[in-house]
């Protein structure tokens, strides 16, 4: 293969939320010649197993406001203030609830599909920044090296990308940005380059009860019928929790659907269960169809799940919720002409329990922007500052993932009940004695004015007070028995 060369100022690997948002803030800050390599064929390419919904809350909206696309988010997303959930029981009973608004003074959050959100960032680039940002789709970064070729004294970063599966192109950026997700090639390369004593770029793992759960996404048609005679159709802006007739842990499943703004958009039904569940053993579309037919007698399955979709679902790999993880190094400086920085899932990744994946990635971009602002775009100053200000919050975020709401998938009904008791206790105490007790971390993360470190400190303080009360009660009971 012939290798084409391309020297540029900034090269971003990954055109997901973190990559496109970073491209925009860098362009806004005056960086030019920014190239984004994205292995998918287009910005809003539909991948069934990645067709989940984001809830962009106040934390993520700090970046949205900065890049001035708040109007587009509200037009294309469903506001959390209008959020209704319909529970559909296996006997056909339906109950619609308006989910409580935690704090009416808090900014509305917006449900938006990943596809639509990435599409919005892409549109913004095409509209305002196309002279500064070049996005190359179908281009996969396949190798990163650092070398000085003898003539040059300073080491350079050399990135090789495979474009359209048939040609190789080489880039030599001043700044390489790794926004390439959980299996980041940029982070893995930095890890290889590090000496063996420092493991700054190696992921540290912090297990949680939801990690290892398996998921697949079933695609349903827009406005799919809820009844056999088709007289009642589903509504796009409504969330649904559809329960199966089976109640035993190996067969019971739920279809979870989050709201979408566009009434003509397909609906994604999330199925999340333990890896040994019966559904993962079904081999083809016919078996999947039979299982759904038996599981959901309340739904006209034949009309809403085509045999083709059942077949796709059966053979799709699906995915596994990752173990909460983060690395400790977010940047590397080779010399004054070669810098590397990491953002988003490339530095922290976890199950979707608290809906913080995209919000924390956008907050990383915000912090990078702030440090560039403070240092007047001086990368030697900005990148160490970015790492030192973001690392404590990243560690706190990963700890919150372990305790926030990991039992919500019904993987262990008793543990879920105990967790609910703890949750309700904290909620009630925080209302009665707000100076002593904080609301559960699940609610606190939605407050973008609190950093993840502050949220963790509040949650841990409440835990300590609860322990002291518990010990006190036990002592009183023991002494009353002895007395
Ligand atoms: C099942 C599931 C459900 C989730 N649900 C939620 C949720 O409800 N709310 C939420 O906030 N978050 C959720 N997340 C997490 C969320 O998707 C991520 O945290 C978020 O997308 C992070 O953005 P990112 O840009 O850092 O990484 P990604 O979104 O992973 O983007 C990385 C991009 O890099 C590209 N790429 C990777 N390697 C290369 C390469 N070598 N060359 C070129 N391109 C490359 C990929 O194609 C991708 O487009 C969920 C994740 C999963 C798995």
Task: State Rg.
Answer: 24 Å
Choose one word for the global shape.
globular
Low-confidence parts lasting 5 or more residues at pLDDT below 50? none
CATH top level assignment of the largest domain:
Alpha Beta
CATH level-3 fold name of the largest domain: FAD/NAD(P)-binding domain
The proportion of residues forming helix, as a percent range, comes to 25-40%
For the report, how would you describe the main beta sheet?
8 strands, mixed
Question: In angstroms, what separates the terminal alpha carbons?
Answer: 87 Å
Quickly give the structural class.
Answer: alpha+beta
**Beta strands, count:** 21
List the ions, cofactors and other small molecules found in this model. Answer: flavin-adenine dinucleotide
Percent of sequence in beta strands: 15-25%
- How many domains? The number is 3
**H/I helix tally:** 13
Average pLDDT, to the nearest integer? 93
In CATH, the homologous superfamily of the largest domain goes by the name FAD/NAD(P)-binding domain
Please, could you describe this protein's structure?
It is a single chain. The protein has 483 residues and is an alpha+beta fold. It has three domains: 3-39 and 138-207 and 323-403, 3-Layer(bba) Sandwich (FAD/NAD(P)-binding domain), CATH 3.50.50.60; 214-320, no CATH class; 413-482, no CATH class. It is built from 13 helices and 21 strands. The strands form four sheets. Strands 1, 2, 8, 9, 10, 11, 19 and 20 form an eight-stranded mixed β-sheet that branches. Strands 6-5-14-15-16-13-17 form a seven-stranded mixed β-sheet, with helices on one face. Helix 2 (58-66) packs across helix 9 (357-374), helix 9 (357-374) runs antiparallel to helix 10 and helix 10 (379-403) packs parallel to helix 13. The model has no long low-confidence stretch (mean pLDDT 93). Bound molecules: flavin-adenine dinucleotide. The site of flavin-adenine dinucleotide (FAD) has 31 residues, from helix 1, strand 3, strand 9 and helix 9. Flavin-adenine dinucleotide binds at residues 13-19, 37-40, 52-54, 140-141, 179-181, 185, 215, 319, 344-345, 352, 355-359, 361.
């Amino acid at each position: 293969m012939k290798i084409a060369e391309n020297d540029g100022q900034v090269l971003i690997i990954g055109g997901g939320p973190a990559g496109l948002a970073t491209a925009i803030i860098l362009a806004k800050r005056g960086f030019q010649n920014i190239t984004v390599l994205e292995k998918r064929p287009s910005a809003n390419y539909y991948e069934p197993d990645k067709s989940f919904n984001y809830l962009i809350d106040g934390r993520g909206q700090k970046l949205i406001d900065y890049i001035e696309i708040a109007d587009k988010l509200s037009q294309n997303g469903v506001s959390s203030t209008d959020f209704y959930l319909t529970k559909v029981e296996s006997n056909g009973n339906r109950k619609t609830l308006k989910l409580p608004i935690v704090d009416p003074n808090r900014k509305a959050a917006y449900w938006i599909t990943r596809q639509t959100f990435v599409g919005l960032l892409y549109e913004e680039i095409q509209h305002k920044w196309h002279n500064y940002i070049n996005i190359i789709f179908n281009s996969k970064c396949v190798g990163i090296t650092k070398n000085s070729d003898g003539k040059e004294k300073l080491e350079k970063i050399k990135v090789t990308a495979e474009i359209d599966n048939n040609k190789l192109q080489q880039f030599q950026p001043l700044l390489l940005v790794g926004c390439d997700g959980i299996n980041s090639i940029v982070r893995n390369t930095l890890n290889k380059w590090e000496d063996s004593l420092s493991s700054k770029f190696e992921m540290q793992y912090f297990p949680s009860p939801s990690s290892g759960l398996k998921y697949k996404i079933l695609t349903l048609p827009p406005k799919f019928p809820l009844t056999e005679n088709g007289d009642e159709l589903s509504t796009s802006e409504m969330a649904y929790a559809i329960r199966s007739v089976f109640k035993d842990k190996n067969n019971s499943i739920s279809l979870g659907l989050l709201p979408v703004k566009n009434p003509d958009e397909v609906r994604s039904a999330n199925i999340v269960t333990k890896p040994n569940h019966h559904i993962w053993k079904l081999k083809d579309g016919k078996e999947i169809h039979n299982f759904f037919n038996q599981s959901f007698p309340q739904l006209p399955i034949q009309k809403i799940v085509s045999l083709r979709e059942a077949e796709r679902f059966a053979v799709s790999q699906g995915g596994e919720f990752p173990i909460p993880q983060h690395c400790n190094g977010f940047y590397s400086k080779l010399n004054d002409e070669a810098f590397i920085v990491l953002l988003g899932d490339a530095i922290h990744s976890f199950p979707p329990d608290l809906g913080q994946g995209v919000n924390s990635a956008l907050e990383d971009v915000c912090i990078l922007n702030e440090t560039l602002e403070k240092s007047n775009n001086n990368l030697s100053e900005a990148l160490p500052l970015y790492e030192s200000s973001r690392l404590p919050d990243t560690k706190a975020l990963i700890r919150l993932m372990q305790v926030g709401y990991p039992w919500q998938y019904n993987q262990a009904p008793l543990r879920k009940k105990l967790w609910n008791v703890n949750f309700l206790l904290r909620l009630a105490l925080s209302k009665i004695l707000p100076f002593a007790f904080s609301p559960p971390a699940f609610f606190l993360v939605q407050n973008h004015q609190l950093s993840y470190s502050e949220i963790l400190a509040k949650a841990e303080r409440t835990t300590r007070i609860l322990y002291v009360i518990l010990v006190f009660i036990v002592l009183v009971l023991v002494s009353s028995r002895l007395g």
